[in-house]
Amino acid sequence: MEIENHASSPAIVEPPTRVAKFAIGQVVKHRIHPFRGVIFDVDPVFANTEEWLSSIPPEVRPRRDQPFYHLLAENSQTTYVAYVSEQNLLPDDSGKPVSHPQVPHFFKELKRDHYVSRDRALH
């Protein structure tokens, strides 16, 4: 009779999850590209498609093991939703509101550099 020794089985190692540097409602800007936005969701690590990640040139491709932020974003021409790694964001302390048309869906008002979240309880 054989006895299995589970202690010697290799453990599944998950990448360490870091605490997000930015918060939902915070206004941020991209470190390189000329756009800014308000965070409406956070993924603790990369949670988009491989196709999306591989479309970024390797020399500027972000690491997967960091928070990624969903932004209601704007640039000088348009508004859109962006998915940005923490390493590419900086706080935007301009105090200016984000003009994305979905901002009122998620947030009540801008107080300094943060939007106040709406109470979106399910009914």
Write out key terms for the chains shown.
31% strand, five-stranded antiparallel β-sheet
SSE order and pairing:
Elements: E1 27-30, E2 36-43, H1 50-54, E3 68-74, E4 79-85, E5 89-91, H2 103-106, E6 107-111, E7 114-117
Antiparallel strand pairs: 1-2, 1-5, 2-3, 3-4, 6-7
Task: Explain how this protein is built.
With 123 residues, the chain is mostly beta strands. It has a single domain (18-117), classed as Roll (SH3 type barrels). The chain is built from two helices and seven strands; from the N terminus they run ββαβββαββ. A hairpin with a 2-residue loop joins β6 and β7. The termini are far apart.
Write a compact overview of the structure shown.
The chain is mainly β. Helix content is 7%, strand content 31%. The chain contains two helices and seven strands; from the N terminus they run ββαβββαββ.
- What amount of the residues lies in strands? 25-35%
- Tally of alpha and pi helices: 2
Domain count = 1
Care to count the β-strands? 7
Q: Helix and strand succession?
A: EEHEEEHEE
Instruction: Name the strands of the widest sheet in spatial order.
Output: 4-3-2-1-5
Looking at the overall shape, the CATH architecture is Roll
Q: What would CATH call the homologous superfamily?
A: Hemimethylated DNA-binding domain
User: Helix content range of the residues, please?
Assistant: under 10%
Shape: globular
- What is the multimeric organization of the chains shown? single chain
So what's the CATH class?
Mainly Beta
Q: Whole-number radius of gyration?
A: 19 Å
| Average pLDDT taken over every residue | 87
- Could you list the spans in which at least 5 consecutive residues all have pLDDT below 50? none
Most strands sheet: 5 strands, antiparallel
Q: The CATH topology is what?
A: SH3 type barrels
